[in-house]
Amino acid sequence: MIKMKEQEKFADESDRASALEAAAIDNGIEQARAKAGTLEFEPTGFCLNCNEPLAQPKRFCDKDCADDHELRNRK
Predict the structure, then answer these.
(1) Measured in whole angstroms, how far is the alpha carbon of residue 30 from the centre of its chain?
(2) Which pLDDT value is given to residue 53?
């Protein structure tokens, strides 16, 4: 976030607004990068798409189930 003293160096309201917008975008990018490293859905012992039992701690049976799950969750 831009502090008051930093805001004083901008020429006008438009420059201040642009700086605030850029700071908000940078913050959003940081949060997205931090979240990208975490699993959205944890393995449960069952395929998260078709609910078939899985022997290993995986999230999906195969790539088709993973793709189908991703496609439905994007909507």
Answers:
(1) 9
(2) 95
- Residue 12 CA from chain centroid, whole number: 33
List the chain domain ranges. Answer: 1-38, 41-75
pTM of the model: 0.45
Cβ neighbours of residue 57 closer than 8 Å, sequence gap 6 or more: 43, 45
Q: Residues 61, 64, 65, 67: what is their CA dihedral angle, to the nearest 10 degrees?
A: 130
71 neighbors 64 (Cβ within 8 angstroms): no
Residue type, 16: R
Distance (Å, rounded) from C-alpha 51 to C-alpha 40? 17
pLDDT at position 57: 86
**Any idea of the CA torsion for 42, 32, 34, 54, to the nearest 10 degrees?**
10
